Amino acid sequence: xxxxxxxxxxxxxxxxxxxxxxxxxxxxxxxxxxxxxxxxxxxxxxxxxxxxxxxxxxxxxxxxxxxxxxxxxxxxxxxxxxxxxxxxxxxxxxxxxxxxxxxxxxxxxxxxxxxxxxxxxxxxxxxxxxxxxxxxxxxxxxxxxxxxxxxxxxxxxxxxxxxxxxxxxxxxxxxxxxxxxxxxxxxxxxxxxxxxxxxxxxxxxxxxxxxxxxxxxxxxxxxxxxxxxxxxxxxxxxxxxxxxxxxxxxx
Length: 251
Known about the structure:
The mean pLDDT is 87. The protein is globular. It is of the alpha/beta class. The strands form two sheets. It has a six-stranded mixed sheet, with helices on both faces. A hairpin with a 2-residue loop joins strand 10 and strand 11. The chain folds into two domains: 166 residues, Rossmann fold, CATH 3.40.50.300; 76 residues, no CATH class. The chain is built from nine helices and eleven strands.
């Protein structure tokens, strides 16, 4: 049986020319949680994400997904296991419609590069699933809208839909609220909560209100190391966290 933790790291370290961008990070993400990774600029959050999704190789340490050592695996192989980084690898093409974008993601999940020779019946089955995914993220009315013409927040929702098409067990969201106004932030936060019902989410997010309302657990990084971990109430009252992060004016 699979354990309580879907993703674990042991002393994960990444050095660049002697500088430790990430140092001895031991992270445990509990299955079914929304787990936030926060910290001031330069804390090592993006490097952590790059290590976890295999866009970078750790200098030392181990990374396990569902108990399996994925430390030396390739990004595509890790994604096929169900660990998918949204907004980075999701297929969103600006001059295709929302429906066409999701259908391409469904084709990739199935392993087909092109479906030009497929029957209309096969393509219709993909369309049905694509429309369901659009409905799941609140984009039914945008199905025939070209992506480049969609509002910014709705494009982000489309990116989540294309990621969901890959049927990930765990999603890594890299600053999903970046550049959004309050209305879009609320919509995407509600969407993240909704899609977390049957999967695990690890996200980097600067908006502390979002973190407080969404996260089951929070890991605080500073200078590439874990400073604190716990729920929001615990972490927000930690004097070191307040000094290193909240007191530094990052929100």
